[in-house]
Q: What sequence folds into this?
C-alpha cells in the first residue's frame, strides 16, 4: 500500500479542517494533547489545545463508518468557518504513527493537501462545507494509527491543531 493512501485514509478528517508545534524534531517544542476537547460530530478527532483563538472554527466532522474500516469507503462530511482568508504559504506539520513507530513526520504546503479534498488556495473567509469519499484498501496493516496535524498561516497564525487515533482490525 502506498503511504499516501494510508495518510489520506487516516488524515482526511484533518485535511478537511484546513489545521504550539506538535513535532519536537521540527521546531524543538511540543504541544500537550488536552482531554475533553473533542471535535463535534461522529469522529475520532480531538483539538490539541483550546481552539477559541484558531482561524478555523469546526462546527462538525462526521465519518462513516466511524471508526474507519480497512476495505471500505470512508465518507467524510465536515462544516466550519474561516475567520480570515488562508493564502499560499500556509503550512501543515503532520505526523503519522503506527503504534510507537513514526511513519511520517513532515512540514508541507497546506494548499497541496487541500487539493486532495477538492479545495484550493486561497481558502476564502467564511463558511466551509466538504464531503469526500475515500476508498480504504484492505491491506492496511492492523494496529493503532495516530495522526497529529498542526496547521498555520504563512505568518505563523494558528489555523487549527488536531489529533486522531484510529485502530484498524483484520
A:
Amino acid at each position: 500500500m502506498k503511504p499516501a493512501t494510508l495518510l489520506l485514509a487516516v488524515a482526511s478528517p484533518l485535511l478537511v479542517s484546513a489545521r504550539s508545534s506538535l513535532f519536537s524534531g521540527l521546531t524543538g517544542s511540543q504541544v500537550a494533547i488536552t482531554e475533553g476537547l473533542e471535535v463535534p460530530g461522529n469522529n475520532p478527532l480531538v483539538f490539541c489545545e483550546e481552539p477559541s483563538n484558531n482561524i478555523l472554527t469546526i462546527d462538525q466532522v462526521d465519518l462513516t463508518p466511524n471508526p474507519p474500516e480497512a476495505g471500505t469507503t470512508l465518507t467524510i462530511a465536515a462544516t466550519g468557518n474561516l475567520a480570515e482568508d488562508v493564502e499560499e504559504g500556509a503550512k501543515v506539520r503532520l505526523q503519522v504513527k503506527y503504534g510507537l513507530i513514526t511513519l511520517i513526520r513532515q512540514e508541507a504546503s497546506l494548499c497541496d493537501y487541500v487539493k486532495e479534498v477538492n479545495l484550493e488556495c486561497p481558502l476564502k473567509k467564511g463558511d466551509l462545507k466538504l464531503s469526500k469519499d475515500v476508498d480504504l484498501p484492505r491491506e492496511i496493516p492492523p494496529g493503532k494509527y495516530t495522526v497529529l496535524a498542526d496547521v498555520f498561516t504563512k505568518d505563523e497564525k494558528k489555523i487549527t491543531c488536531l489529533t486522531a487515533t484510529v485502530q484498524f482490525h483484520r
Remarks:
- DSSP finds three helices and eight strands in the chain.
- Residues 3-16 form the longest helix (14 residues).
- The chain has a mean pLDDT of 84.
